[in-house]
Design goal:
- The complex is a heterodimer of chains A (about 220) and B (about 475).
- Chain A has eleven helices and no strands.
- With about 220 residues, chain A is mainly α.
- Among the domains of chain A are: about 30 residues; about 100 residues, no CATH class.
- Chain A is extended.
- Chain B starts with 20 loop residues before the first helix and ends in a 7-residue tail after the last helix.
- Classes of the chains: A mainly alpha (about 220), B mainly alpha (about 475).
- At the A-B interface, helix 1 and helix 9 of A face helix 7 of B.
């Protein structure tokens, strides 16, 4: 005998470790490599401590006051500095941050340099997405962006992954609402959301596509 | 086991020209136990450099993209697919010999099964690299496996290209297991003969503790039978599925039901041809003439005659159906194959595949090594042309405005030649380091292995051998 008896177990141990290693690798990629893990929670520091909670929540401004393009085009639009100045021309002292943050708007405007807002919600270049198509069919902002009206600093709430898009495209009913409530992020339907959604789906003729060229054009 | 006329030792053809078990061991073990031969080293260096060339060209492809190949619309499948099918076809003889012939109790298979199984495995490896790189983005090749992902994108189970992945990986795994399991008793023989520590250690690892106990043999026979039963349908299914890549499309000349049987026949045809080519050389070089006799060569030639004629019948049937169907596109596809811009490849295919095996009707041709060698080379060339003819049908489909002409680039040619380097590098290593023939199985078909041999011997010694 060249080898002791315990070596008989080596092939089994080897097989078991290879199989479990492969399983671990697949699991690791599925779990940590998923946008659910690395996209959700992304919260970059913005050049100005602008609070959505204050403006959209407490002051009750409509999302479309600043993101005015959302019903007309692909992009909702980041507002130009002038939009801020509509009010901040007169309001120069904030209730929480004093003059420091608001002064930055005036500085940017005086220098003629746009404020370098940091983008939070990104889609890859090969994915086509149109805000107007969604908003006009009764998909509220909250479905993809979460409760922005409660965020002091904006963070990504949803993974924006392909399978996440497809979940809704395949079963849209419970995500469709009255267009009048589109920017009412706190709105909750009475009764079954899917039931109500189906009426609006009929009304707005919602037929989400799930073929490749719907998003990859 | 069902009694068979071959079980009467007096009626058996002589499969091994020796009556001494030890001599058989010596003959087969000798190449693995002698010093490295200069010719062998030079050949390995030559094939190794072609292997490096192949790796280099795949690196170039990785860097540049598939534009360096000649493929383009309308001929989007060029050399890569031609070579893939050619290699995978060659890989069909091994399993046929080791599985189907085993189930049919063809004892002569023992002389050639190890050799052809090794060839199968290396040919499947050569085949596998082509579709892997043909996907264009090799770094996302894992998409072909059903792995969970954030895109909710799964392989299209209705695509024959996806079936291919499983057909070929299953085939490779089963062939490898079959080959390795058959090797275990022989590796143990080599282990017991080993005279250096390293050699003994390595062989002991791979012999998995084989002692040749009756219990071992019982398990071995059972496992062999099970693997043979698993492999038998694979011999037929793998190339059928490869043919579905074409047959399930709607290209005229591809969309035909004859494809699966015709591809399988062609695969076995080319597989036997390459086994024969290599074996004729190996038995001369390594002195296996006592174990691989003319009888074996002749039997393989009969297989080539059968499958070659089947392939010829398929060609005739394709043309007949193209005419009989009344479909003008189908008719044009075949007309164009024979008389169009690629007429030379069609007639090269007909000459090599239909005409050359017909020589095997003559017994003296079947038993003439030089003739056989030349004809097997022709068959291999012919089978390559067959795949070329089929793939290139793409160049003239429905609309004349989209017709084109396919020209392989230098990268196509040298990648193909490079796969020979890969094949022969592995094959030379096999020839040197592993028993090329199945020692234990060859002994099993010698008359001396019969439990009644000695009773014959004592009662009527003239009966025992012929």
């Amino acid at each position: 005998m060249v080898f002791p008896k315990w070596t008989n177990k080596i092939p089994l141990i080897l097989l078991a470790s290879v199989v479990s290693l492969l399983c671990i690798i697949v699991f690791a990629f599925t779990y940590w490599g998923s946008p659910k893990n690395y996209v959700v929670g992304y919260q970059p520091v913005q050049p100005i401590a602008f609070s959505h909670k204050l403006h959209a929540g407490e002051l009750g401004m409509d999302c479309r006051y600043c993101h005015y393009n959302v019903e007309k085009g692909r992009h909702a639009g980041v507002p130009p500095t002038e939009t801020c100045l509509n009010c901040h021309n007169l309001i120069k002292v904030g209730s929480k941050t004093g003059t420091a943050e608001i002064q930055k708007i005036h500085d940017a405007h005086d220098k003629g340099v746009p404020v370098h807002w940091v983008r939070v919600h990104k889609l890859p270049d090969f994915a086509y997405f149109d805000h107007s198509a969604h908003v006009n069919k009764g998909v509220s902002c909250v479905e993809c962006h979460g409760r922005i009206d409660q965020m002091t600093e904006v963070r990504a709430e949803k993974p924006l992954s392909m399978s996440w898009c497809l979940d809704c495209h395949r079963n849209p009913a419970s995500h469709i609402r009255d267009r009048a409530k589109i920017t009412d992020l706190a709105w909750k339907p009475e009764g079954d959301p899917a039931e109500l959604g189906r009426t609006f789906m009929k009304l707005y003729n919602v037929q989400p596509r799930t073929d490749c060229s719907a998003c990859h054009r | 086991m069902i009694p068979h006329r071959d079980d009467d030792p007096t009626k058996r053809p002589v499969l091994v020209e020796s009556s001494d078990f030890h001599e058989v061991t010596e003959i087969i073990a000798a190449p693995t136990e002698t010093k490295l031969n200069t010719t062998w080293i030079l050949l390995l260096m030559l094939s190794g450099s072609f292997l490096c060339l192949m790796v280099g060209l795949f690196g170039y492809l990785f860097w540049e993209g598939t534009g360096i190949w000649g493929v383009n619309v309308p001929v989007a499948w060029g050399f890569a697919i031609v070579n893939f099918i050619w290699w995978i076809g060659i890989g069909h003889a091994g399993t046929l010999i080791s599985a189907i012939l085993f189930l049919f109790r063809q004892k002569w298979r023992t002389g050639i099964n190890r050799f052809s199984e090794a060839m199968t495995i290396f040919a499947v490896m050569c085949a596998g690299v082509f579709p892997a790189f043909h996907v264009g983005r090799i770094w996302v090749v894992y998409y072909i496996f059903p792995l969970p992902n954030q895109m909710a994108a799964w392989p299209n189970t209705r695509s024959p290209l996806f079936w291919d992945v499983f057909a070929i990986s299953t085939y490779f795994t089963v062939s490898l297991l079959f080959w390795y399991m058959g090797l275990i008793p022989d590796l143990a023989t080599l282990r017991d003969r080993a005279n250096t520590k390293v050699r003994k250690f390595v062989l002991s690892v791979f012999a998995l503790g084989w002692r040749g106990a009756a219990r071992h043999w019982q398990n071995y026979e059972r496992a062999y039978l099970i693997l043979a039963a698993i492999s038998t349908p694979l011999v037929l299914s793998v190339h059928s599925i490869v043919s579905f890549d074409f047959a399930t499309s709607k290209i005229p000349g591809w969309h035909t039901t004859i494809f699966p049987p015709y591809f399988v026949a062609g695969a076995v045809f080319s597989g036997f041809a390459l086994v024969s080519t290599l074996l004729i050389v190996a038995r001369e070089v390594f002195g296996f003439k006592k174990v691989v006799r003319l009888h074996h060569i002749e039997n393989m030639n009969k297989f080539m005659l059968l499958t070659g004629t089947l392939v010829g019948y398929a060609y005739a049937m394709e043309i007949f159906v193209a005419w009989y169907s009344g479909n003008i596109y189908e008719r044009y596809a075949f007309w164009n194959r024979a008389l169009g811009e690629y007429w030379w490849s069609y007639w090269a295919m007909i000459t090599c595949n239909v005409i050359s095996p017909q020589f095997f009707w003559f017994r003296w041709v079947r038993r003439n090594l030089i003739f056989t060698f030349i004809l097997t080379i022709f068959i291999n060339i012919g089978m390559w042309f067959e795949r070329f003819v089929i793939v290139i049908t793409l160049h003239a489909d429905f609309l004349p405005s989209s017709w084109g002409y396919y020209r392989p680039t230098w990268v196509d040619w040298w990648t193909y030649i490079g796969t020979f380097g890969m094949f022969f590098s592995f094959f030379l290593l096999f020839l040197k380091f592993l028993p090329q023939l199945a020692i234990a199985e060859v002994k099993g078909v010698m008359p001396e292995a019969s439990p009644h041999f000695h009773s014959h011997d004592s009662s009527n010694s003239s009966n025992s051998r012929h």
